[in-house]
Write a structure and sequence with these properties.
Length: 61
């Protein structure tokens, strides 16, 4: 019964392994650039969702 949740269990060793893999794949200098791009993408997504909410409210009202 607990076996179906086993793949979802992420512990500190798994996180460390993921971080190590990211460092090896991208290198230390590339990671800040990737995070900056991820942050700007999230910001654009939030702005777009706010604009969509405003247009749906205008149509209702």
């Amino acid at each position: 019964m607990i076996l179906y949740m086993l793949p979802l269990a992420i512990g500190p060793w798994q996180i460390a392994l993921i971080v190590l893999a990211v460092l090896l794949l991208f290198g230390g200098k590339k990671i800040p650039e990737l995070m900056r791009g991820l942050g700007s993408g999230i910001k654009e997504f939030k702005d777009a969702s706010k604009e969509e909410d405003e247009t749906t409210e205008d149509k209702k009202g």
